[in-house]
Amino acid sequence: xxxxxxxxxxxxxxxxxxxxxxxxxxxxxxxxxxxxxxxxxxxxxxxxxxxxxxxxxxxxxxxxxxxxxxxxxxxxxxxxxxxxxxxxxxxxxxxxxxxxxxxxxxxxxxxxxxxxxx
Length: 118
Known about the structure:
The chain is mostly beta strands.
């Protein structure tokens, strides 16, 4: 089991940047994949980006070229650098951990609000 705590959300103007952090309660070195999802009001939760323990990354088309996911195994932390933010990026962002590719078990953080507005 792993507990996840997100931080770094807030209000930012269009075109601005934010960096989200997700701190895990234990080592993430062996966790298969860490990721970020988001959920806007009235919409389903969707994958934003994920990164495997081998460093492979995957991004939703809507954020490619603007967002960057990274993981620091020494700090047990995953980051999401978000640049060129748009109003449509407004959502609650959730950190996700999937310990194994063979078992459909996921752990979630409590979420952090990102609001992009002028």
